[in-house]
Amino acid sequence: MLDVCIYITQTHTRIRTLLSSVRERKKMELGRVLGLCLILLVTILVFSGGVATAAKGVTYDGRSLIIDGQRKLLFSGSIHYPRSTPEMWPSLIKKTKEGGIDVIQTYVFWNLHEPKLGQYDFSGRNDLVKFIKEIRSQGLYVCLRIGPFIEAEWNYGGLPFWLRDVPGMVYRTDNEPFKFHMQKFTTKIVNMMKSEGLYASQGGPIILSQIENEYKNVMAAFHEKGEAYVKWAGQMAVGLKTGVPWIMCKQPDAPDPVINTCNGMTCGETFPGPNSPNKPKMWTEDWTSFFQVYGAEPYIRSAEDIAFHAALFIAKNGSYVNYYMYHGGTNFGRTSSSYFVTGYYDQAPLDEYGLLRQPKYGHLKELHAAIKASANPLLQGKQTMLSLGPLQQAYVFEDARSGCVAFLVNNDAAKVSQVQFRNNAYSLSPKSIGILQNCKNLVYQTAKVNVPKNVRFATPVQVFNVPDKWEVFRETIPAFSGTALKTNALLEHTNLTKDKTDYLWYTTSFKPDSPCTNPSIYIESSGHVVHVFVNSALAGSGHGSRDIRVVKRQVQVSLTNGQNSISILSGMVGLPDSGAYMERKSYGLTKVQISCGGTKTIDLSRSQWGYSVGLLGEKVRLHQWKNLNRVKWSMNNAGLINNHPLAWYKTMFDEPSGDEPVGLNMSSMGKGEMWVNGVSIGRYWVSFLTPAGRPSQSMYHIPREFLKPSGNLLMVLEEEGGNPLGISLNTISVTGSNRAQSQLS
Ligand SMILES: *[C@@H]1O[C@H](CO)[C@@H](O)[C@H](O)[C@H]1NC(C)=O
Ligand SMILES: *[C@@H]1O[C@H](CO)[C@@H](O)[C@H](O)[C@H]1NC(C)=O
Ligand SMILES: *[C@@H]1O[C@H](CO)[C@@H](O)[C@H](O)[C@H]1NC(C)=O
């Protein structure tokens, strides 16, 4: 049309020159055409300008996100970059894409990136930019949950521990020091993404960012300061001008234009929806399992249940569903928060090792395909709901141009339901949704799983059962006289450790003034673990759990009539990841008493206590090759090796052949931490049994990238006593193929 206008304009000029005074009527007609052309031209210019703007950024309306000017129905999966290795990222992302996922959602881990105030680390597993670029290269989008408070079962919810020592600090409220550091870090991340061109507004993959995290859980504790903080956080984030929308999860009053989103297992049933008709309905955490703590069994959520709730959310106008987690991975080092196991969301569609967990992976893949096949009517059509029975509904999306799709829902958990819909009969399994393409063909049923279940198994390739191959270093138990810091009070644990170590020694010296018969020591601690040593021998241990936070323990001891050295090791299994006023939480011993003969009680809480931070092996950084000879190792003696508290064990091993993932079976040990070639693969705790009498986790992932073909150093710190001769090296595999494509017909 534009060409026609140009042609007419040119022709008109020529005609005018030729027939200037003659044909007034024709000239008038041409003038009218020209006028129309002008309007058309202006319209085209304005319109194309509008399209250009829409195509650059990400916008939204009440139905969905709009990317490159197009409505989007998005499935997303959470993968946290530091919970795997850069070498694993490409294959994890590939499998995620093959599972029908469009977006990868990750938190940003502040305490990894800024371990010391102003000192940043984006190397190795912390290489956020590399992770995002890998996602971009495979053609997926990114949802960047900056937080920077993230919870995430991550140590201290992602906050760096140095923040606690900033004067006047109160976390996550209208508090100037907190807002200053939060804004500084958020700005740093946003600027880093911008300078790499990673926002969708710059042609990059990041389509969404999150500020704060589930603030509603703690907001009431901060009263009106909480409300002010939420407003500030929204404004601060929006002011960073990323060109893509911001979200707040579990935050019903998220300030415009920030989108409030849902977290949970049943958001299709529980989410009242966004707080404005102009915001899309989004689900940021559809839990594929649930976090696991030591002392508990894994939480198994069925593929059918996940599919039902994801489909229901879409049927009720949802346009974004993120699975939390799609791949959980590993809490390497000391990164897990209080009591959480080292493997993270192992029950996700991709398991801890990155292997497909079937049928979960495949059943969701089929769901995504079924929904995507009807994306047009879903996004362009009008939604109506009709009742098909007392507990049965149809959600229909229909549009004259793009067609029709229906979700037939049976909410009856007990009975199959026969329903009629548009002159066809359908049989719906209990608690299920059937998806009708063209409102006619049943292409997917949430309760019908077509993908075979697979089974994961471990193959031991080496048992470390040769005593000669182990060497042991036993920690010396510090005595009061040897400690540098002394005071007549029980000090707070983390005030001294600064979270550089799990361990703090409390030591004192006790001389009974009259013979003490049948003595015992009673301890209360708000830390997680205590080990009581009297005259250098372990007298007893105790620990709490995620539900029982205070450790109370009575230990029988033997005392001499002279000075007795009492040394109590307080241990933490990660800092908390949630709750209001986290900066005020205190840990460690709160009461120590000695009882004689069950009658006389001597309170030692205000005695002179001497402190020692961390273990000797930690102080010399024994896990590193270069420091191995800083202690004296004993060897060649099975008796010397077995069952000692506070012992470091080392041995060498070769990498198992093949490319299957590798795991270390620690079931013969108690509690501690493991390093391979100087890298911590996490804490282990196999002595804390579940109610069924099993360890919560006995197999611990060693990424292949940590290994070389031969001469790998395994270092184990054991707190309680265990038998390293029972540790084994395993390869991990699943029955059937692990390749995403060949898994499904
Ligand atoms: C879905 O959106 C339509 C408007 O297209 C509205 O009429 C309907 O009530 C919404 N349904 C639900 C369950 O939110
Ligand atoms: C931590 O130590 C500081 C002084 O260094 C003290 O003011 C504060 O009360 C201590 N905190 C706890 C919980 O004991
Ligand atoms: C670990 O080893 C023990 C002892 O051999 C075995 O009973 C257990 O099944 C193993 N655990 C796993 C996860 O393979």
Radius of gyration: 32 Å
Uncertain runs? 1-28, 36-54, 741-745
Strand elements, count: 38
Shape annotation: globular
Structural class category: alpha+beta
**Overall CATH architecture of the largest domain:** Alpha-Beta Barrel
- Largest beta-sheet details: 8 strands, parallel, barrel
Counting structural domains, the number is 5
Cofactors, ions and other ligands in the entry: 2-acetamido-2-deoxy-beta-D-glucopyranose
Q: Supply the number of helical segments.
A: 16
Largest sheet strand order: 4-5-6-7-8-9-10-11
What's the CATH H-level superfamily name of the largest domain?
A: Glycosidases
On the 0 to 100 scale, the average pLDDT is 92
- CATH C-level class of the largest domain is Alpha Beta
Keywords: Apoplast, Glycosidase, Hydrolase, Membrane, Signal, Transmembrane, Transmembrane helix
Catalytic activity: Hydrolysis of terminal non-reducing beta-D-galactose residues in beta-D-galactosides
Enzyme class: hydrolase
Pfam family, one: BetaGal_gal-bd
Overview of the molecule:
- The chain has 745 residues and is an alpha+beta fold.
- Helices cover 22% and strands 30% of the residues.
- The protein is built from 16 helices and 38 strands.
- Helix 1 (2-18) packs antiparallel against helix 2 and helix 10 runs parallel beside helix 11.
- It starts with a helix and ends with a helix.
- Residues 492, 495, 586 line the site of one 2-acetamido-2-deoxy-beta-D-glucopyranose (NAG).
What characteristics describe this protein?
EC 3.2.1.23, 38 strands, disordered C terminus, Galactose-bd-like_sf, hydrolase, single chain, 745 residues, TIM Barrel, alpha+beta, eight-stranded parallel β-barrel, binds 2-acetamido-2-deoxy-beta-D-glucopyranose, glycosidase, 5 domains, six-stranded antiparallel β-sheet, signal
